[in-house]
Amino acid sequence: MRSPSLLLGSLLVGLFLLMALASALYPVDPNAPDFLARLKPPSPDHPLGTDPFGRDLLARILHGAKNALLVGGIAVAVGVLLGVPLGLLAGYLGGGWDAALNLLMETLYALPGLLLALLFAALMDPGALSGMLAVGLSLVPAFYRMARALTLSLKAAPFVEAALALGASPWRVLCRHLLPNLMGPLLVQASLAFAAALLAEAALSYLGLGIQPPDPSLGRMLKEAQSFLPLSPYPALVPGLALSLAVLGFNLLGDGLRDHLDPRR
After folding, report:
1. 154 close to 182: Cβ distance less than 8 angstroms
2. Distance spanning both ends of the chain, measured CA to CA
3. Could you read off the pLDDT of 112-129 as tens digits, one per residue?
């Protein structure tokens, strides 16, 4: 029987994905201002109301979900592509390689994501690319630790020793025998990391270091609505609720996958 966390998480994540896909179908321009319709409540013309510049909140939420998924997906991909291979190598080779990579990851783990974002914003222009790199690098240590720990626990397993006895090369052992055993924990870690990436992207955009205007971002929408809360709650309520449900969905999905893929259950 599937866990309620897996079902509810899948539902919320699927809804967020549908929102991102619907951005291509919704006919309203998310950046078109209408100063005669500023801070309007939900109506037939604007189903979720309008923001302080009169822009349609539904259109901006849909495009903001698409941008958040793009930034979060690339950031998680950076974390996986850097962290998992390095973790495999550190766990399998051991010795000096393990010590050097551990030192590198501890150094990277000690750097706050905001500091990395400031560094990339100084080297490049603030925007989606610098945000992706900063969030992606901050996720590398988590994937590295997971891959290293599982490799250490599996490299002495009988099936690995049998493969080496039959003449398999270390590269074949890593790719053919160890990496497939990481798929389950990797899916769980990726889901949890995606939730963290969505929050990090929103925080960077709120501070002006992420997606730049006029492109919609859930974090920037919250920033723009902050000064207008006494006049209308909708410009802050709508993106805040969308972001909260998306983060909740990915966390529940990760918890549900962990229970579903646990061989002891």
Report:
1. no
2. 10
3. 777 777 777 777 777 778
Confirm whether pTM is higher than 0.85: yes
For residue range 159-180, what is the model confidence (pLDDT) as tens digits?
777 877 777 777 787 777 788 8
Q: Pick from 54-63, 89-98, 177-186 the range whose average pLDDT is largest.
A: 54-63
d(CA 61, CA 80): 28
Burial of 164 (0-12, 13-18, 19+ CB in 10 A): middle
Q: What would the two tokens of residue 227 be?
A: 């000064």
Please answer whether residues 92 and 150 qualify as being in contact, where contact means their C-beta atoms are separated by less than 8 angstroms: no
The residue among 247, 240, 256, 239 whose CA lies nearest residue 197 is 247
Spatial distance between the Cα atoms of 70 and 120, rounded to a whole number of angstroms: 18
Q: CB–CB of 117/204 below 8 Å? A: yes
CA–CA dist 110, 90 (Å, integer) = 19
Q: Residue 73: which residues within 8 A CB-CB, separation 6 or more?
A: 194
